[in-house]
Amino acid sequence: MAFSFLTQELAIDLGTANTVIFQDDQIVLDQPSIVALDNISGKVVALGDQAKLMYERTSPNIRAVRPMRDGVIADFNAAELMIKGFIQQVNANRHTLFSPNIRCVIGIPSGSTEVERRAVRDSAEHAGGHDVYLLYEPMAAALGIGLDVLAPKGNMVVDIGGGTAEIAVISLGGIVVNKSIDIAGDVFTREIQQYLRQQYNIRVGEITSEKIKIAIGSVSSELENEPADFVVSGPNMMTGKPLTVTVSYHEIAYCLDKSISKVEESVMAALEETPAELYSDIIENGIFLSGGGSLLRGIAKRFSERIDIPCHVADDPLRAVARGTCLALKGIHKYPFLMR
Fold first, then answer.
1. 3-class SS letters over the chain
2. Which of 144, 160, 256, 323 is 20 to 30 A from 108, alpha carbon to alpha carbon?
3. What are the pLDDT digits (tens) for 147-180?
4. How far is Cα 244 from Cα 202, in angstroms, rounded to an integer?
5. Rounded to the nearest 10 degrees, what angle do helices 249-273 and 206-216 cross at?
6. Spatial separation of the C-alpha atoms in residues 72 and 28, rounded to whole Å
7. Single pTM value for the model
8. What is the pLDDT of residues 253-264, one digit of tens each?
9. What phi and psi values does residue 296 have, to the nearest 5 degrees?
10. Is the Cβ–Cβ distance between 86 and 80 less than 8 Å?
């Protein structure tokens, strides 16, 4: 008798900003990639949403950590505790005498080194993973968008996540051309903070800057549906007194312009390396955008105008990679690009 009930299959998008876990085609966890640890005991105090409430607000006895930086593990111990804690949350309602054997597929940046891949694999194995597969994020995004990655056709995916922007040309189940740059959501957030400091002498935290990015983030100074201005409060860096300023989407478009231009340059560099036949496929199909960065207002239009190829934002771009890892998990023996 096969003990299949003892095997648990999880598809994990271990993102810099958020971790999404699929099980049985359902999202069972979608929380910020943050863990709060007790400085004395080293034990986990809070995970995900609860830990985010503590981020930049902790006492000396507690530190809230983002274990992922630039798409890879920056704090091995914190990452292991976070993954283990999230898996325990997923299994909170699972009543079995034995711990399940976990088979999982985890998305990683395409520019990961062997050491970085080993860190992700080891963290997953220490957290209970017995059968761990790794999948490059642009390939996962292409699957999640709904592209036929095994077809002899060229498709270009630009996945702008929290830590990295992944640019890839995919054909016949492989990545033909690949660019991975560390200009993505975290950089956009820091640039908004820096702009506010320079322009208004106001100091804001990472959480507030992220809220501004979500509320009025734009890459174009001319939008059809203009978002309302965002009111920001914080300490004046010169006097220390409270200061309130109003920020418009025009200002955000201005302060993000250089970073977005670098992403565009990387897309152009990838296109220059693309074989002619695949290039013609991309012109026909367009470029597909995914990840949280693709939610910046006006980004598809700007890319289309600058690159001169139609660009399309995926449906639910935030979860494209997670959906792709889920599809890869269902077809483990079908896809040659999964790494054990």
1. CCCHHHEEEEEEEECCCEEEEEECCEEEEEEECCEEEECCCCCEEEEHHHHHHHCCCCCCCEEEECCEECCEECCHHHHHHHHHHHHHHHCCCCCCCCCCEEEEEEEECCCCCHHHHHHHHHHHHHCCEEEEEEEEHHHHHHHHHCCCCCCCCCEEEEEECCCCEEEEEEECCEEEEEEEECCCHHHHHHHHHHHHHHHHCECCCHHHHHHHHHHHCECCCCCCCCCCCEEEEEEECCCCCEEEEEECHHHHHHHHHHHHHHHHHHHHHHHHHCCHHHHHHHHHHCEEEECHHHHCECHHHHHHHHHCCCEEECCCHHHHHHHHHHHHHHCCCCCCCCEC
2. 256
3. 999 999 999 999 999 989 999 999 999 999 999 9
4. 8
5. 80
6. 23
7. 0.90
8. 999 999 999 999
9. -60, 130
10. no
Q: Which two tokens stand for residue 124?
A: 């997953």
Enter the tokens of residue 52.
């985010």
pLDDT at position 340, please?
Answer: 75
**Confidence tier at 124 by pLDDT (50, 70, 90):** confident
